Amino acid sequence: MSSDTESVSGSVADPAATASLHQTVPFAAHLGIEVVSATPAEVTGSVAWQESLCTAGGALNGGVIMALADNVGALCAFLNLPQGSKGTTTIESKTNFLRAVRSGHATAIARPLHVGRRIIVVESDVVDDEKRLVARVTQSQAVL
Question: What is the dihedral angle through the alpha carbons of 123, 24, 46, 104, rounded to the nearest 10 degrees?
């Protein structure tokens, strides 16, 4: 029996990973970010479009997209921490926005580009429900 639940987007959310993220990062809970899957090789998470998270034009706010990518990327970095590390924190992030999300969900897929002893670099693609690229985010995470 699986403990996974179907999210609004039709993706299967991982309730344990989502709960852990929400406990660690209350802001992720406030935004409604759900973790879909989490392995050291790839972390996927999503956030549902809702009017309260939009700009005046009905597009999901860029800060929400950046926060989604930051949280999913940080989880990816955390899963790749060297043994004996205490955690990770974002020290740099660059976002290229390519299209707006006006309904459905934004989904971030994070993969490690570099896993070092002091820095982990993660690249996240953010896509809409039609799998169109919304943004690409590259972030550096310091190993604590």
Answer: -140
Indicate which CATH number applies to the domain containing 9: 3.10.129.10
The two tokens of residue 4 are 């996974």
Q: Residue 143 and residue 101: Cα distance in Å, rounded? A: 32
Question: Looking at the chain, how many residues does it have?
Answer: 144
Q: Does the predicted model carry a pTM greater than 0.70?
A: yes
| Domain assignment of residue 39, given as a range | 5-143
* pLDDT tens-place string over residues 41-98: 999 999 999 999 999 899 999 999 999 999 999 999 999 999 999 999 999 999 999 9
The total number of structural domains in the chain stands at 1
Q: What is the per-residue DSSP string for the chain?
A: ----EE-TTS-EE-HHHHHHHHHH-HHHHHHT-EEEEE-SS-EEEEEE--GGGB-TTSPBPHHHHHHHHHHHHHHHHHHTPPTT---EEEEEEEEEE-S---SSEEEEEEEEEEE-SSEEEEEEEEE-TT--EEEEEEEEEEE-
